[in-house]
Amino acid sequence: MVNLTHYTIRMSLDVRKISFGETILDLQRKRAELLEERNAIDNQIAVIEKTVESLIFLGNPESKMPLDRRVSEMGLQDAVRSVFRRSFPIYLLPTDVRDTLASAGLLGSSPKNLLISVHTAISRMRDELEEEARQGGKTAYRWKAGGANHALGKSTKL
User: Fold this and answer.
1) Does residue 101 fall inside a structural domain?
2) CA 117 → CA 3, 114, 127, distances in Å?
3) Cβ pair 129, 136 in contact under 8 A
4) CA angle 80–150–53, rounded 5-degree value
5) Which of 16, 77, 87, 111 is the most exposed place for a label (fewest CB within 10 A)?
6) What is the mean pLDDT of residues 106-133?
7) Using CA atoms, how far apart are residues 40 and 141, in angstroms rounded to an integer?
8) Are residues 139 and 78 part of one domain?
9) pLDDT at 80
10) Helices (H), the chain
11) How do residues 79-112 score in pLDDT, each as one tens digit?
């Protein structure tokens, strides 16, 4: 960190002995460093805010359900896509997606059949998802970082 007191004291001692050019360059360099640090901190804060929002959503899907109220009229592919977008940056297992859809009112003939349909939807959107291997040979998925409209929850396919 720049000790601005150092510059103030230096200036008050003898203005004639100060190298203004060197002091200005030092302060400009320090300002650039601080702006870079602030940008990095702002980025970290944004990730933390999104992660907290996603965890709140996953902990209580009804509180901020990203799905249309008429979830039964929404196509399964769009519903699954919406869950992944809303939960970014958290990785979800297909069972997590199924449970979220079920809590929003999208029910298959059975939980097992809904899970099979979720797996099918995931396989159709693999290019939109990132994968993470889990213990027991399971794979978790999340929306690709920087994917089109991931924060907006808007479908890129209309």
Assistant:
1) yes
2) 61, 5, 18
3) no
4) 85
5) 16
6) 87
7) 26
8) yes
9) 87
10) 4-13, 20-59, 76-87, 94-103, 111-124
11) 888 888 888 888 889 998 888 888 777 777 788 8
